[in-house]
Amino acid sequence: MRRVMEMVVENLACARGGVPVLEGVSFGLRGGQALMLRGPNGIGKTTLLRTLAGLQPALEGRISVPPEAMAYAAHADGLKATLSVAENLAFWARIFGQRDVDTALTDFNLGDLAQRQAQNLSAGQKRRLGLARLLVTGRPIWVLDEPTVSLDVASVALFGQAVQRHLEGGGAALIATHIDLGFEADELDVTPFRAVPREIDSFDEAFA
Amino acid sequence: MSLWEYANPTRFMRTSGVLLPWLWGLTGLSLVVGLVWGFFLTPEAENFGSTVKIIYVHVPSALMAINAWLMMLVASLIWLVRRHHVSALAARAAAPIGLTMTLIALVTGAIWGEPMWGTYWAWDPRLTSFLILFLFYLGYMALWEAIENPDAAADLTSVLCMVGSVFALLSRYAVNFWNQGLHQGATMSLDKEENIANVYWLPLVITMVGFGLLFVTLVLVRTRTEIRARRIKALIARERMV
Amino acid sequence: MIALLLRDLTLAIRAGGGFGLALTFFLIVVVLVPFGVGPDSTILSAIAPGILWVGALLACLLSLDRIFALDHEDGSLDLLATAPIPLEGVVAMKAAAHWVTTGLPLTLAAPGLGMLLSLEPAAFRWLVLSLALGTPALSMIGAFGAALTVGLKRGGLLLSLLVLPLYVPTLIFGAETVARGADGMATATPLMMLAAITLAAVALLPFAAAAAIRINLR
């Protein structure tokens, strides 16, 4: 099922609110590899991930990635309060042209909650449901922004296992996180890529 | 040497800085000549009385009210296609001027309408169209104000300007359709050359040129202000990052 | 894409008031008018086409800001933008769901409210036909306005201001169709214009709205 795929990012620069935050970001990601993005708050990890996911244009540089290979997950899970756990998952599965939601439910230990409405879930359970969505996209490259927020230790372990299974199946993951997910992974500290503010000595340079 | 070089902000600031004193001079000259000639040196029309002289403000402002929108449309398209920031800022700069011109046209029309038709306002197609245009200007400006990211604001207002232009044309047609024949008196418009005697025509042309120059001058001044404001913003943002 | 339409409809039903909100507002407008202008049935009958169309338009306006705002808040819009279905399709489906929950019930309820306003008997079918043809345009234009203002905190009033002038042609041709129908005149021209506006809006505005959403998401 998995295609041989590779993501290559070269000399990427991205901006938040029109102000450049990161520049010269380069890295590669192969199938079976997980890359942890590190760096202090506000450095631009979220901006970088949104740029990679295609939600905002890059200022410069190149992102080469197979079409329709990325699944993006951020702080908000995209859940509907009045839909049940299974309905929420089934909706995203259909949007991504998939059918099977049972594996996702089992992998994230949501089987018992399948019929419960999302509004009656705890924050951690919602988060698990949001992450289970990744499994039903059927996409090989996961781009995740702080996936472990509000997860307890057991759930983090569950998530770590899911990522490992994904990698073993030939998938890849790019994860911005501060904690250890319990498996070996490469790290990329984005702090050195922090954009250097340019001198503004003429009117031209006021326009990025 | 291409026209697009003037889209460079620094170049624009330099060139417009040189041009502006001349433009101000020409604007003042043509407005003074046109308005003095029109107000004091033309005979009073037999069946209109002195009220007819309001055309020297009414017609040019109405003309510029529409032309300002056309200019915004062109500037928006240039921004969307070529991403020249000056173009987007010029469109933003033109909107309040267009709004004011529309307001002047509406108010002078009402003042003129009272002695002519016995009413300040009638839902005549032309009047209604201008009212709708007024709303379009308001919406366009409100959208600019509401969005913080300047590039996103430029993009969204450009999209609105394009879609709005189509609907403005459609409204013009719809309004004609809606009230045709109900208010014949109101179609006594002065924008057809044959309707107006030669003695009135020349000063009217001069005031039209004057209003046109006034528009260009004000757009340049306001665009310069917008460019400076953007530079201040960029400088402040840089301060915060250092 | 059908999944999206079904989800939005399910949400509208479960949230309660999804269908009822617009209808109730329409009812309120129509009931209030006679108290304002008096019970004289000749006057009511004369202004009925306009009141019914204005009422339907305002009821439609009421729920516009929810088209994208809820999906933007909970992150669904980000996820939909990165999903395999085109964003233009998302916009079209969202507008369709809005129409099913507002335009369609308004169209079906209009004859009843027309009776309250002493609408000419001949005009009833034109009322239903014009609303059925015109309200999809209202939903689609509204979705475009909602797309422009999706990222804004207090976008509601701005949305109304943006959409109002865009609604003018639809309102004119819609009300004109009913008024002409009431007078027994030919209704073909305004009706065809109405259909043309709806078709053009449905064909072209999804692209403008999707572009606006992409800009707002970045």
UniProtKB/TrEMBL annotation, chain A:
<dbReference type="GO" id="GO:0022857">
    <property type="term" value="F:transmembrane transporter activity"/>
</dbReference>
<dbReference type="InterPro" id="IPR027417">
    <property type="entry name" value="P-loop_NTPase"/>
</dbReference>
<dbReference type="GO" id="GO:0005524">
    <property type="term" value="F:ATP binding"/>
</dbReference>
<keyword id="KW-0472">Membrane</keyword>
<feature type="domain" description="ABC transporter">
    <location>
        <begin position="7"/>
        <end position="208"/>
    </location>
</feature>
<keyword id="KW-0547">Nucleotide-binding</keyword>
<dbReference type="InterPro" id="IPR017871">
    <property type="entry name" value="ABC_transporter-like_CS"/>
</dbReference>
<protein>
    <submittedName>
        <fullName>Heme exporter protein A</fullName>
    </submittedName>
</protein>
<keyword id="KW-0813">Transport</keyword>
<dbReference type="InterPro" id="IPR005895">
    <property type="entry name" value="ABC_transptr_haem_export_CcmA"/>
</dbReference>
<dbReference type="GO" id="GO:0016887">
    <property type="term" value="F:ATP hydrolysis activity"/>
</dbReference>
<keyword id="KW-1278">Translocase</keyword>
<dbReference type="InterPro" id="IPR003593">
    <property type="entry name" value="AAA+_ATPase"/>
</dbReference>
<dbReference type="GO" id="GO:0017004">
    <property type="term" value="P:cytochrome complex assembly"/>
</dbReference>
<keyword id="KW-0201">Cytochrome c-type biogenesis</keyword>
UniProtKB/TrEMBL annotation, chain B:
<dbReference type="Pfam" id="PF01578">
    <property type="entry name" value="Cytochrom_C_asm"/>
</dbReference>
<keyword id="KW-0997">Cell inner membrane</keyword>
<dbReference type="GO" id="GO:0005886">
    <property type="term" value="C:plasma membrane"/>
</dbReference>
<dbReference type="GO" id="GO:0020037">
    <property type="term" value="F:heme binding"/>
</dbReference>
<feature type="domain" description="Cytochrome c assembly protein">
    <location>
        <begin position="3"/>
        <end position="183"/>
    </location>
</feature>
<feature type="transmembrane region" description="Helical">
    <location>
        <begin position="127"/>
        <end position="147"/>
    </location>
</feature>
<dbReference type="GO" id="GO:0015232">
    <property type="term" value="F:heme transmembrane transporter activity"/>
</dbReference>
<dbReference type="InterPro" id="IPR002541">
    <property type="entry name" value="Cyt_c_assembly"/>
</dbReference>
<keyword id="KW-1133">Transmembrane helix</keyword>
<keyword id="KW-1003">Cell membrane</keyword>
<feature type="transmembrane region" description="Helical">
    <location>
        <begin position="21"/>
        <end position="41"/>
    </location>
</feature>
<feature type="transmembrane region" description="Helical">
    <location>
        <begin position="93"/>
        <end position="112"/>
    </location>
</feature>
<feature type="transmembrane region" description="Helical">
    <location>
        <begin position="199"/>
        <end position="221"/>
    </location>
</feature>
<feature type="transmembrane region" description="Helical">
    <location>
        <begin position="159"/>
        <end position="179"/>
    </location>
</feature>
<keyword id="KW-0201">Cytochrome c-type biogenesis</keyword>
Automatic annotation (TrEMBL), chain C:
<keyword id="KW-0813">Transport</keyword>
<dbReference type="InterPro" id="IPR026031">
    <property type="entry name" value="Cyt_c_CcmB_bac"/>
</dbReference>
<feature type="transmembrane region" description="Helical">
    <location>
        <begin position="43"/>
        <end position="64"/>
    </location>
</feature>
<protein>
    <recommendedName>
        <fullName>Heme exporter protein B</fullName>
    </recommendedName>
</protein>
<keyword id="KW-0997">Cell inner membrane</keyword>
<feature type="transmembrane region" description="Helical">
    <location>
        <begin position="96"/>
        <end position="117"/>
    </location>
</feature>
<feature type="transmembrane region" description="Helical">
    <location>
        <begin position="191"/>
        <end position="213"/>
    </location>
</feature>
<keyword id="KW-1003">Cell membrane</keyword>
<dbReference type="GO" id="GO:0015232">
    <property type="term" value="F:heme transmembrane transporter activity"/>
</dbReference>
<dbReference type="Pfam" id="PF03379">
    <property type="entry name" value="CcmB"/>
</dbReference>
<keyword id="KW-0472">Membrane</keyword>
<dbReference type="InterPro" id="IPR003544">
    <property type="entry name" value="Cyt_c_biogenesis_CcmB"/>
</dbReference>
<dbReference type="GO" id="GO:0017004">
    <property type="term" value="P:cytochrome complex assembly"/>
</dbReference>
<keyword id="KW-0812">Transmembrane</keyword>
<feature type="transmembrane region" description="Helical">
    <location>
        <begin position="123"/>
        <end position="150"/>
    </location>
</feature>
